[in-house]
Fold this sequence. Notes:
alpha+beta; Jelly Rolls; three-stranded antiparallel beta sheet; 8 helices
Amino acid sequence: MQLTRAQQESLYTHGLVRFPEIVPKEVVNTALRAVNSSLGTAGIDPEQLVTFRSQSYCPELQRSQEITDLLTASPLWELAESAVGAGAVAPVRSGQIALRFPSTEPPHDPHPHIDGMYSPHNGVPEGTIQNFTALIGVFLSDVPAAYSGNFTVWPGTHRAYETYFREHGPQSLLDGMPAVELPEPEQVTAKAGDAVLCHYQIGHGIAGNASPNTRYAVFFRLSHVDHDSQRWECMTDIWREWAGMRDVVTRAATGGEGGKGAWA
């Protein structure tokens, strides 16, 4: 399965493309059953909650086949290679199990971040940026409305941050999020089995959850096989590792039609 031109253009312009019902129902249900079984048997240690929110719930399941099949036993791996390049995506051996529980407090507004920045509980070593190439999110539950623990993006910020890092250097991210003008955020709604493919550098966050339901999702971080040797250059040349995007990037650079793909 290959990205369509419209999907390429959405990824180029917005930094994200959505794939409705891309993960087979049985694969979703197997992962969801494993997560709920873990919650029902191992439970959640309250002292670990802040770490689980920042890293992953059910950490014993992160490398399990039930979780990794969401990526490798669905069309998502082929789509990722369509964007990055055949054989160019390093093996992915685990996923982040990201749950967002309902709150009785008024829902908080989302705030943007870029992955790989240090915080006290996320496991990133202080003084480093653990960047990568692409983020894939798979939804295991329906997210039908805003403020349901939605994955939230600021469309186009991958390109705004590219410009910022060209001017200030990619290591400036160590000082905090770049001061750029932000568009209105988009709270992504979804059905179980939907997925999103995002550029690493898009600003994203999580909306508060005022719904009665827990939001279940799994996120996978993908890196180009040569990423370690060019991790800084990729922040100032954001399509450097995306061989499958070269045509749409070239069309946009020469004034073509790149960027008119529909926001999904």
